[in-house]
TrEMBL record:
GO cellular component: cytosol
GO terms for MF: adenyl-nucleotide exchange factor activity; protein homodimerization activity; protein-folding chaperone binding; unfolded protein binding
Entry protein name: Protein GrpE
Coiled-coil region: 33-71
Record keywords, A-Z: Chaperone, Coiled coil, Cytoplasm, Stress response
Example GO BP: protein folding
Family membership: Belongs to the GrpE family.
InterPro entries: GrpE (IPR000740), GrpE_CC (IPR013805), GrpE_head (IPR009012)
Ranges of Acidic residues composition bias in the record: 11-23
Region: Disordered, residue numbers: 1-32
Protein encoded by which gene: grpE
Subunit details: Homodimer.
Compartment(s) of residence: Cytoplasm
């Protein structure tokens, strides 16, 4: 009340007080406004940084998921390709026995023996065709160049008619299953 009485009595003083009040209010409003703007800018910067980190994490997660999916597909493909490996190894013994049977000297005069050899030969051909359909293929033939990834050298001997590193004798055929060695060929190599 005392202020009101003073200003009522003195109009100049009242004008001066009114001019000072907006200046003080303006100073007070600029400081909080500037602080609010600075705070908003700071929060926007943090938001942008967080969004960038989130985007990076999302990209990394997607890449990891793609890698896992690709590895899983490869594992499934390998499982399908090589599921027959144990079975194929066991069948190889049967193939070897049929080949040994056909390698024995034949008595071509006896028709029953000839029919038996023909039956064994047909069985061997059918068995080889069956395993070939499932990706099993023989390796190691006389005259091939020695390959340590596919062949196991039992001995090296100089042999006429063969160049160095050529297979001269196949003691036991080797086999591949879809390009993977399941049994190396045991061979003799020319020195």
């Amino acid at each position: 009340m005392a202020d009101e009485q003073r200003t009522d009595n003195n109009p100049e003083l009242e004008q001066e007080i009114q001019q000072e009040e907006p200046i003080q209010e303006q100073n007070q409003t600029e400081d909080p406004l500037e602080e609010a703007i600075a705070r908003v800018q700071e929060l926007e910067a943090q938001l942008a940084e967080t969004a960038k980190k989130e985007q990076d994490l999302l990209l990394r997660t997607r890449a990891e998921i793609d890698n896992i999916r690709r590895r899983t597909e490869q594992d499934v493909e390998k499982a399908h390709k090589f599921a027959l490996e144990k079975f194929a190894k066991d069948i190889l013994n049967t193939i070897d026995n049929l080949e040994r049977a056909l390698a024995t000297p034949r008595n071509t005069e006896d028709e029953s023996v000839k029919a038996l050899f023909d039956g064994v030969e047909l069985t061997l051909k059918e068995l080889l065709a069956t395993v070939a359909r499932f990706g099993v293929e023989p390796v190691g033939a006389v005259g091939e160049t020695f390959n340590p990834d596919l062949h196991q050298a039992i001995s090296m001997q100089p042999v006429e008619g063969f160049e160095s590193n050529q297979i001269t004798t196949v003691l036991q055929k080797g086999y591949l299953l879809n390009g993977r060695v399941i049994r190396p060929a045991m061979v003799m190599v020319a020195a």
